[in-house]
Amino acid sequence: MPKLASVAKRLLVGRPFRTDRLAHTLLPKRVALPVFASDAMSSVAYAPEEILLTLSVAGISAYAFSPWIAIVVVLLMTAVVLSYRQNVHAYPSGGGDYEVATVNHGRRWGLVVGSALLVDYVLTVAVSISSAAANIGSVVPFVATHKVEFAVGAIVLLTAMNLRGVRESGTLFAIPTYAFVFGILAMIVWGVTRVVLLDDEVRAESADFTLLEEGDQLTGMALVFLVLRAFSSGSAALTGVEAISNGVPAFRKPKSRNAATTLLLMGIIAITMFLGLIALAGMSGAKIAEHPAEQLVDAPPDYEQKTLVAQLANAVFTGFDPAVWWIIFFTGLILVLAANTAFNGFPVLGSILAQDRYLPRQLHTRGDRLAYSNGIVGLAAFAIILVVSFDAEVTRLIQLYIVGVFVSFVLSQSGMIRHWNRLLRDGPDEAAARRMRRSRAINAFGLTMTSAVLVIVLVAKFTHGAWIALAAMGTIYALMTAIRRHYDRVAAELAEAERNRDPAVLPSRNHVIVLVSKLHLPTRRALAYARATRPDVLEAVTVNVDDADTRALVAQWEKEDFSVPLKVVESPYREITKPVLDYVKRMRTDNPRDVVTVYIPEYVVGRWWEQLLHNQSALRLKGRLLFQPGVMVTSVPWQLASAQRVRDRDVTAPGAVRRGLSGKDKR
């Protein structure tokens, strides 16, 4: 079984990389763009649709607000992109928003940003994958009826790809990302050309349906609230912008400049596609209803509402199915791959938080392919839970979305303003001061915009699910604080013990106990090892759980005339662990300055099912003895034949010498 597991791991992940290959995993801009910007670019596939979907509640007349909402979203995106270009130059270490907030606002605000981004990364995966299921389901009925299964499978596939390393996954994702961008831009250009230059009609399949408003006509504050809600949903187009600032260390040198250039390219592409899709939706008369069966009049009874992108592709490329399939296929694929932004951001942020002792230290460990494997697996697990819990419904999941990212936007921009103020107080030269004041103005504009959007999002989406995201952020904040307290408590405890340590005080004696169940070779080896340590007191102990077996053991022990006394501990309830613990405690109570060392003979097996048949009592004993003060536990291994085969295979495996085994070691 271990061999099978090793082979499966190699097939899934690939051969391990040496640590000195870390520099070879750095990304050029052409690969970094699809790796870090796929989320921001792909969000244009569902952000325009969410605007129309929200406005549909008020009927077709409310669609007149969509261009204005789009313009405000673009203005917001421009402000955020320009602001983050300042971030990547000022903080190129990869901490991103977390580092900016921690340095300029303090540890607590840094934790707020950290918890917000962790929640947002998980939601990025869930929303992107669910949107991919909806788009692909528009043309593949099987996916439409099995969205949850498709989404879970896609997350598992992405996890496997990312476990192979950032560089490898980025290369795999580059082609579909660029194919998606090319397809959407081509659709926009051809659609606008047909309408504007060729005076042709582009009609979506839903253009002839009548869109009815739900309930009574919305007026006054109700309509304003609806427009604000539509704007907050459309602001999902900004998700992923922060990923580049968190991933600066993954870029090739010069890191900051390459990251800033990639960020600018991402912003230009995303804004162009977002505005183009909104414009095409208006030209083609496409309608997206929250409840199609009730709102879309004149629609056939069996009408299945397609996504906005699918409707536009069919309208623009009428009669040319290959182009339609290209758009739909790569839109679905890019939405799956968009989650890769989170798979790169979440593990890096988790590693930084772990290094600062706010998360378990295992998250700071790189795997075989130099990726943060534990963080990747953790992100996948949480995303799968969300997808299953919300049935992979984008409309339900998106209500939880973007709260976290705008919390980080606000704290990051306000932190950058403090950063520039601090540098300006140091009295730089006039040219540098002008640059700093210009950067501060950009960040101030970004802070104003993102703060307004955060308020709108909280007001408009709180009762629709945003409270869940806030509750998750609060829970993660409390958890990280508790983890840091634990690590600090352990460090303080060790420091206190070090200060109070008296190097002259040593244990009075070493009292050694060898646990015996049978008088076989493992027991004889344990006795030999125990004798070799020259203890002050050496004794063997057995627990009487069966009188006949115990009498036979004692008789054999006396017959062989061991120089080590064998003590029999009674166990009226046939337990093994508690009688041994009680005996060890008595030794410590009678001689508190003695160290008690317990030797436990143990089988080493090579198959997983053999472990179930051996060592169960030994494992329980070790687990309990470790909590006893002044007690040392030593395992004395006895390798069975199956374990020897595993050892021989590891030594003779290809690359054993490369991993550091000399010829003498192999012999």
UniProtKB/TrEMBL annotation:
Main location: membrane
Signal peptide: none
UniProt KW Membrane keyword: yes
Gene3D superfamilies in the cross-refs: Amino acid/polyamine transporter I (1.20.1740.10)
Transmembrane segments annotated in the record for this chain: 60-82, 109-133, 139-160, 172-198, 218-241, 262-283, 323-349, 370-392, 398-420, 441-460, 466-483
Pfam families assigned to the protein according to its UniProt record, in alphabetical order: AA_permease_2
Membrane association type: Multi-pass membrane protein
Alphabetical keyword list: Membrane, Transmembrane, Transmembrane helix
InterPro entries referenced in this protein's UniProt entry, alphabetically: AA/rel_permease1 (IPR002293), APC_K+_Transporter (IPR053153)
Compartments (UniProt record): Membrane
Record protein name field: APC family permease
Organism: Actinophytocola gossypii
